[in-house]
């Protein structure tokens, strides 16, 4: 006949289950609210120093089709992006296709200019994922928004261009981008950026779950208590 599990064993089994839940990867939820896309160029564009400060709100229902200059496929038509540029939101990732607008003897660039230490940049504000807090990101710059393959970015490293400004705002520097030479000048120089957001769970009903190390200490304490009870 099997003996009933002791309270200590039941406690340890419950702790083991909690540890497994904590170690299991959470499903990637998608964005749950409207996102404001801003194009900011404090120094204007090449040949025109008038500062650029444009923005457009993308409704949550339109995030997957997003913004596109010369829109197609249902995307929102945008008048202030460079030709062929686009911004879409897929799952918990931001996709940006950045095109060249200027080239000279030193290289091929977007043509957006920073000023006074402030970068020309895209900002994505209002990023919200259900039950999650954004704590970081992974960045890729490969054609087709892939994680490897052919890249249109010559320099700098893609990760250096992206910044987490606060818990719901991410920016992408534009004035630092140097495009790879595809042999066609500005006509097809572009880079596809994929920004995968890294999140953590907000916790159970807004609270915080114990760290796995804390649970392990509790388990050790429970074992010790059980051993002492048996010796007594």
UniProtKB/TrEMBL annotation:
InterPro entries: Ice-binding_C
Entry keyword set: Signal
Ranges for domain Ice-binding protein C-terminal: 210-231
Signal peptide feature range: 1-29
Coiled coil (UniProt feature): none
Pfam families cross-referenced by the UniProt entry: PEP-CTERM (PF07589)
Protein name as catalogued: PEP-CTERM sorting domain-containing protein
Protein source organism: Pelomonas caseinilytica
